[in-house]
């Protein structure tokens, strides 16, 4: 398995100081910046769009930006985010009419592509698109808000997806999003995840370096 990646979600950052917050988590050892896009339509909350992603690039952020689209429809935002500097773009399969087309569109812009599954969304969407995926992300909370509790059934689903990925032979990251904390990250990794989104667990602490170090220690044992 590839090295574990820790991806702080800026949903829990101080938006008034977003550039500094991103610099701080990266300096503290984060690998990737997770960027939660909510449209008050697909999910009941409203956040930020491509302009903020572009602003972070202009500010000087060079780390990978992992854009999690919680929007419907999906396709119209893909070029905008790719041009704004997204590295990875993931979307929820039930939010687009043509899953295969949306995945191809993301890759056509040179970004990594991924599908996101809500806690109750079946994995059957994966059946014919494994060759077009760089990331599979499992939501371990219902999308829309930070600070929710990890839904335990995600553990079984993670193990199922781990097996699907391994059996496929493709190089696909297994990302988990929602309720990831210092005290459950090791168990989540054991179930098969190799990329961990954490919002409140990181931004809710004063010392970002200390919490990221404790997470990495829990991961490496
Ligand atoms: C929820 C978002 C998550 C959220 C995670 O819809 O997709 O990325 O920020 O927040 P925590 O880590 O606080 O559960
Ligand atoms: Zn997210």
TrEMBL record:
Pfam families: Ribul_P_3_epim
Stored InterPro entries: Aldolase_TIM, Ribul_P_3_epim, Ribul_P_3_epim-like, RibuloseP-bd_barrel
Keyword Disulfide bond: no
Required co-factors: a divalent metal cation; Fe(2+); Co(2+); Zn(2+)
Residues binding substrate, per UniProt: 9, 68, 144-147, 177-179, 199-200
Enzyme class: isomerase
Catalytic-site annotation from UniProt: 36 (proton acceptor), 177 (proton donor)
PROSITE patterns named among the record's database cross-references: RIBUL_P_3_EPIMER_1, RIBUL_P_3_EPIMER_2
CDD domains hit by this protein: RPE
Residues that coordinate or bind a divalent metal cation: 34, 36, 68, 177
Pathway: Carbohydrate degradation
GO biological process terms on file: pentose catabolic process; pentose-phosphate shunt
Cofactor note: Binds 1 divalent metal cation per subunit.
Physiological role: Catalyzes the reversible epimerization of D-ribulose 5-phosphate to D-xylulose 5-phosphate.
Family of this protein: Belongs to the ribulose-phosphate 3-epimerase family.
Stated name of the protein: Ribulose-phosphate 3-epimerase
Gene responsible for this protein: rpe
């Amino acid at each position: 398995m590839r090295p574990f990646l820790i991806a702080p979600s800026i949903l829990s950052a101080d938006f008034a100081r977003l550039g500094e917050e991103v610099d701080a988590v990266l300096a503290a050892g984060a690998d990737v910046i997770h960027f939660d896009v909510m449209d008050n339509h697909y999910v009941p909350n409203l956040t930020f769009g491509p302009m903020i992603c572009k602003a972070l690039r202009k500010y000087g952020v060079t780390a990978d930006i992992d854009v999690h689209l919680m929007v419907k429809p999906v396709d119209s935002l893909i070029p905008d985010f790719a041009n704004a500097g997204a590295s990875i773009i993931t979307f929820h399969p039930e939010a687009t009419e043509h899953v295969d087309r949306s995945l191809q569109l993301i890759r056509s812009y040179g970004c990594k592509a991924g599908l996101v599954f809500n806690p109750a969304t079946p994995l059957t969407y994966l059946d014919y698109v494994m060759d077009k995926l760089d990331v599979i992300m499992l939501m371990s909370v219902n999308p829309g808000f930070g600070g929710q509790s990890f839904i335990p059934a995600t553990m079984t689903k993670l193990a199922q997806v781990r097996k699907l990925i391994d059996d496929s032979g493709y190089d696909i990251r297994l990302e988990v999003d929602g309720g990831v904390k210092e005290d459950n990250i090791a168990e989540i990794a054991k179930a098969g995840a190799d990329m961990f989104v954490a919002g409140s667990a990181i931004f809710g602490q004063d010392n970002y370096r200390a919490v990221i170090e404790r997470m990495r220690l829990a991961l490496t044992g």
